[in-house]
Design a protein that fits this description.
abc type-2 transporter like fold, 2 domains, four-stranded mixed beta sheet, two-stranded antiparallel sheet, 8 strands, elongated
Amino acid sequence: MRWYFVFLKSIREQIRDYWILLLTISLAPFFVFMYYMMVETETPEFNIILVNHDEGSFFMDQPINLGDSLIYYMQLVSMDQETSMLHYAEQDERLAGINLLQEGEADVMVIIPRKLTLQLLNPEYDDPRGTVLELVGDVTDMQYIIAAVWSEELINRFIRDASGISLPIAWKETTLGYSGQRTEFELYVPGMMILAVIMMIFSASAAIVREPEAKTLERLKISNLSALEFLGGISLIQIIIAIISLLLTMLVAVCLGYTLLPGTFWFIMLVAFLTSLSMIAFSLIVAAICRSIKDVAIIGTFPLFILMFFTGAAFPISGGKLFTLAGITFHINDILSPTWAVDALNKVLIKGQEMRETIPDLTMILVLTLAYFIIGVWAFRRRHMSAA
């Protein structure tokens, strides 16, 4: 029962250090709100410049310019709801379009070739120098990539209609799981849920370091308190804090439009519980390095950023492949347990997989938690318990 008194003592100390507590439980909900503001309150827009160099031709003794028709077609189609974020504007000169691209006022420039009409009206005409459509833009910019893909699709559609050519095959899109029903904001929420648990690294590390810093560890050791009893008492309050942070994060997400799938609440709680255990174990390693709460605030920032940005919690990411074992591919960042937690939530909440298919992920969280605990207990006893 000695762990129980450590638990009560930890509660009082958490209330006393309320700033750390508030930071732990409020940062993930704040990130949810910020992500919502970034991806949901602003409609994406893509500005495409069209430069028509088509010289036109004659059809049944009538002049025709399919370049002009293409521009009209793209401007007309972009008014549809599906492509309403596309904005096409005509420019006379290539150089003027490049200036707009460099100034950030446009994302892509499409240059219509000189012999477009002649090629479409006379399929036997073959002059690559005059029939090549050109895309101009910053290929490293996501705005360019999206706008270019859409523009290519619309141009191909127009060319098929104008030339009377039909593809021998048709395309059908089938979305994986719930991915087609989720908004961009909702795709980030599973990672934010795990981020709510990751944030406990500050409060857990501070709670562990507080004892040797305040010299109370010596009295606890005289009472024959074991390391496991000491860690058990502290861990319980940290798990409660992590669950509160998670629930608050889910509440904010739901209020902002996130749809919680029926029957998944307890699965989320299970993943969060296992992740909180691994974060407590990870905090032991951090606490073994630190001598004071001030050290936790400074040194703890580095592992926090690693856990936030290299596990898929803050945004989707995948490390380089290491090896494949039993059909499971292991990456560099898989040594971090939240990586498996985020993957487990994404499988169920986005990809629509069965919960039993996440057993390998949950198993890896437990394996890594055990590894963290072994390293953490050894390091903490060597650094603090033996010195007390």
